[in-house]
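A favour, since you know our structure tokens better than I do. What I am after is a single protein written out in full by you. Could you add the entry underneath, on a fresh line?


***
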Amino acid sequence: MKTSFLTLSFLLGFALPGLSATVPFPEVPAALQQAKEQGKPALILWYGSDWVPQVDKLCNDWKALSSSGMPVVLGQFDEKTGLDGEVRKKTLPLERYNIPTAVLLAPDGSFMATFPPEVTRDTATLKRQVLSIIPSAPEFMKLSAKARSSSGVAAATAAGQALDLLRVSDALHCNDLRKIINKQDPNDTTGYRSLYGMEHLDMYGEMDIILKGGPDGKLKGKDRDFDAAEAFMRKALKNGKLKGERRQQWLAGLYYVQRLKMENSAKKDRSAMLATLKQIVDVDPNSEYGKGAAKFYHYWDPASVHVITRGYFDTGEQTLGFEKDWHVDVSSSVTTPGTYLFSLKQMDGGKLISRNYRLAVNGKVVSTPSIDPKTDTKVVELTVPEGTPANAKIEVWLTAECRDGWMGCCGFIEMKKK
């Protein structure tokens, strides 16, 4: 009983700082009503008073924000106020699990923007970003109303033009306008369906339907319709409106189709994939898509080399399913000239094929083992010649491939003197 009481006291004590934190803003339904009556956007501050760190400071910052002359109606959403998930779905058209966050709604209640925790915590940045968006609210509502009252291409165009006023990341959360675009312009004559109508997962879902031969299709494996799926992607990529990350997303989808096609063909030609990956990098090499595409380009490019500078290898990163050259830096393991044993010691059940071993000093091959270069082996003898400089870069070069490994082959690399 004593333990239960102490535990309860601890939990209550832990929650008390959050319980004391409040903001003097109306809850979401009342805030939306005020926004509609006053013709102002509503900025809803969404937080969890029980478990957001420094919630007292956060609420005090928001109170100061309310007196700074922002032309918005401020509202609050906190699970503690009694607004459960079902009420939230009706009032905030957004799923958000990282809090605190802020949601900007047009005076008619339409979603316009969301702001992540790092922005919501910094009221100066939040204010600046909100003020940059709200001037577009009147035109956004006008176009949204036109989209809802029209049909066909006219409706899709108005919906797309409304979304053009928002940041692309926010436009992809405007599900009501996206539905209008998808329904009224299924053939994407406006270009807005590929731009806003299909976000990342929607794109892959439609592509999968095409691969299977249609909504009721049952094509599998190598019989899937790769050409039709690629044509679908290339048609979208002709859309001049696709810029930045959105273009990279569609190119990534094209790469995915090309990879499936390559893996299910006898030729195993990777040139089309490499060209698409290069396009992704060229759009923005510093974006996450750009960095990922660069990694995959290196993965698939037969001319690139897998460099290992640590004491282990992971072929799941570089050589799962095809041979690739490895350069293994063993400089730290070589103490003096002489004969050494180079060993690959696997840690899983994947089948690692390794052959064509060579020892290189400062980029020049100086020793090869006595076995046939085509022989698959995990241990070879290599000779570090006399006169090798003490500070030389010494590498073992080999060609390796992991076969039948679920996540590739991995293990340790050893270089020991005999």
About this structure: The longest helix spans residues 244-263.
